[in-house]
Amino acid sequence: MSVLDHKIDFAVVLSVRNANPNGDPLNGNRPRQNYDGHGEISDVCIKRKIRNRLQDMGEAILVQSDERRSDGYRSIKERVDANAEVTEFAKGKKQNNELYAAAACNAWMDVRSFGQVFAFSGSEVSVGIRGPVSIHTAVSVEPIDITSMQITKSVNAVTPKDPNKKSSDTMGMKHRVDFGVYVFYGSINTQLAEKTGFTSEDAEKIREALRTLFENDTSSARPDGSMEVHHLYWWEHSSKLGQYSSAKVHRSLEVKLKDGVSEGKSIDDYSITVTPLEGLPVQEYAGL
After folding, report:
1. Residue 58, helix vs strand vs coil
2. pLDDT per position as a tens digit, 244-260
3. Helix (H, G, I), strand (E, B) or coil at 46
4. 172: Cβ–Cβ under 8 A, 6 or more apart, which residues?
5. Closest residue by Cα to residue 272 from 225, 235, 232, 223
6. Which distant-in-sequence residues (6+ apart) come within 8 Å of 236 by Cβ?
7. 287, pLDDT greater than 80
8. Nearest-angstrom CA–CA distance, 176 and 284
9. pLDDT beyond 70 at 10
10. At residue 166, does pLDDT exceed 80?
């Protein structure tokens, strides 16, 4: 496997229909919005989904969701402590932060992709790893409309003192985005790839994870088919620094409502164009 030796930029166009793509816990779990009313999906949320997809693809992942654990470890620390190649450099005469970081990057793909901070209570190790893969927050092309509905839970969570009586209904709220097209961008930095050992093969796996981002991501807030990746744009530069800045590459993608359309109801209501950049071809992949 060869370490990635050329810069990569990418962009993903996705849609949300009758789903909550990323609830805000500080706002009653309503879908995230910026002050202009545009919907947002945090970079942390997107990275979680990428990790899940990589895990489904058989890759070793350090930061696993508790409900998706593929091993018997209940925390990051337990997972780290169980890895002999990593803990070998954690204490004593062999303690070496650089070798510790290298072993962690070799052991887990999400560490060599996104980086990780290793600083546990009671441990002498304090290591910060910067990963080469950076992800922007996804933002909707147009302001989003949010529909809220009140829900009730009409069952007994516990047996009441009088088993013949039903406990009072529990009230709650569910929120959803009626429809929205979101775009997010990202890049893969070669200088950091060299430090973590991120390879060209790893980049291909990240690409596939982006293309299939919402597979096995079903929940009450995101029913199957409510979120869809439509287009993945992938720019591979010919050098480590790249022919163009990431900002210029990302600006070459334009997503907007078609002329004469006042409100987007489907992806077909949007015009998606990529302005060619001399010497930098773009590869387009359809979502799953």
Report:
1. coil
2. 999 999 999 999 999 99
3. helix
4. 150, 151, 152, 153
5. 232
6. 6, 7, 8, 281, 283
7. yes
8. 29
9. yes
10. no
User: What element of type H or E holds 130?
Assistant: strand 126-130
Task: Look at the block and give the residue holding tokens 């990302």.
Answer: 250
Residue 18 DSSP SS3: strand
- Distance (Å, rounded) from C-alpha 13 to C-alpha 225? 15
Phi, psi of 77 (to 5 degrees): -60, -45
Task: Return d(Cα 124, Cα 107) in angstroms, integer.
Answer: 20
3-class secondary structure, 70: coil
Question: What amino acid occupies position 207?
Answer: R
Residue 17 gets which letter from DSSP?
E
pLDDT digits (tens, 9 = 90+) for 121-137: 777 788 999 999 999 99
Ranges of H-type helices in 9-60:
43-56
Element (H, E) at 103: helix 97-107
Spatial separation of the C-alpha atoms in residues 7 and 133, rounded to whole Å = 10
pTM of the model: 0.92
Per-residue pLDDT, 134: 98
The pLDDT mean for the chain works out to 93
Rounded CA separation 209/285 (Å): 12
Token representation of residue 41: 């999906």
Q: What does the pLDDT look like over 33-90, one tens digit per residue? A: 999 999 999 999 999 999 999 999 999 999 999 888 888 899 999 999 999 999 999 8
Distance CA 127, CA 115 (A): 10
Which position has the higher pLDDT, 158 or 183?
A: 183
CA–CA gap between residue 185 and residue 164 (Å, rounded): 57
Q: What are phi and psi of 81, to 5 degrees?
A: -65, -25
- CA distance linking residue 87 with residue 225, whole number of Å: 42
**Alpha-carbon gap, residue 47 to 32, rounded angstroms:** 16
Cβ(127)–Cβ(97) below 8 Å: yes
